[in-house]
UniProtKB/TrEMBL annotation:
<dbReference type="GO" id="GO:0052657">
    <property type="term" value="F:guanine phosphoribosyltransferase activity"/>
</dbReference>
<dbReference type="GO" id="GO:0032263">
    <property type="term" value="P:GMP salvage"/>
</dbReference>
<keyword id="KW-0660">Purine salvage</keyword>
<keyword id="KW-0460">Magnesium</keyword>
<dbReference type="GO" id="GO:0000166">
    <property type="term" value="F:nucleotide binding"/>
</dbReference>
<dbReference type="GO" id="GO:0000287">
    <property type="term" value="F:magnesium ion binding"/>
</dbReference>
<dbReference type="GO" id="GO:0005829">
    <property type="term" value="C:cytosol"/>
</dbReference>
<dbReference type="GO" id="GO:0032264">
    <property type="term" value="P:IMP salvage"/>
</dbReference>
<comment type="similarity">
    <text>Belongs to the purine/pyrimidine phosphoribosyltransferase family.</text>
</comment>
<dbReference type="GO" id="GO:0006178">
    <property type="term" value="P:guanine salvage"/>
</dbReference>
<dbReference type="GO" id="GO:0006166">
    <property type="term" value="P:purine ribonucleoside salvage"/>
</dbReference>
<dbReference type="InterPro" id="IPR005904">
    <property type="entry name" value="Hxn_phspho_trans"/>
</dbReference>
<keyword id="KW-0479">Metal-binding</keyword>
<feature type="domain" description="Phosphoribosyltransferase">
    <location>
        <begin position="8"/>
        <end position="155"/>
    </location>
</feature>
<dbReference type="InterPro" id="IPR050408">
    <property type="entry name" value="HGPRT"/>
</dbReference>
<keyword id="KW-0963">Cytoplasm</keyword>
<protein>
    <recommendedName>
        <fullName>Hypoxanthine phosphoribosyltransferase</fullName>
        <ecNumber>2.4.2.8</ecNumber>
    </recommendedName>
</protein>
């Protein structure tokens, strides 16, 4: 597997993203950080420890990939782990912006649930795959259209534990 983004590069960029997020929420009001499971877990854990703000942590699931699939199917959103977000600032975190469909739908869902504002942050923004207009407020890295794993991203629930972003060789590539 080729390493696309090293662990050190990820660490440095997350430090800078945390500073950008802190500046964006300068009013000091608490922020509810909502992560889209499961891919966001590693990214979210590292990022929230570096954000100098009062934060509340929550999760939502939104998935259109199943098993070994590398092309999306029907999007399913589950929000049982989401607290009351009415009137709150929400920072939505996801591992990757690919087609834009998931993030667009989840932002709309959070606004429907009463969030005052929703900003989105992604670890990776993939070039050439976006099908709907969506501009995240915070982006870690822009990457080429390759199938990547590591640092929370998986193929068939494997490779999430890798401390770097790698390009997967083989059937998913």
């Amino acid at each position: 597997m080729d390493v696309l983004i090293t662990a050190d590069e990820i660490r440095e960029r997350i430090d800078r993203m945390a500073a950008e997020i802190g500046a964006a929420y300068h009013d000091g009001r608490p922020v509810t950080v909502v992560g889209i499971l499961t891919g966001c877990l590693v990214f979210m854990a590292d990022l929230i420890r570096r954000i100098d703000l009062p934060v509340r942590v929550a999760f939502i699931t939104a998935s259109s990939y199943r098993g070994e699939a590398t092309t999306p199917g029907k999007l399913l959103i589950r929000d049982e782990l989401l607290p009351d977000i009415r009137g709150r600032h929400v920072l939505l975190l996801d591992d990757i912006l690919d087609t834009g469909k998931t993030l667009t739908r989840v932002v709309a869902h959070l606004l429907d649930r009463g969030a005052e504002t929703v900003k989105a942050g992604v670890l990776l923004r993939k070039v050439g795959r976006q099908e709907v207009p969506f501009d995240p407020d915070f982006v870690g890295f822009t990457i080429p259209d390759r199938f990547v794993v590591g640092y929370g991203l998986d193929f068939n629930d494997e490779h999430r534990h890798l401390p770097y972003i790698g390009v997967l060789d083989g059937p998913a590539a």
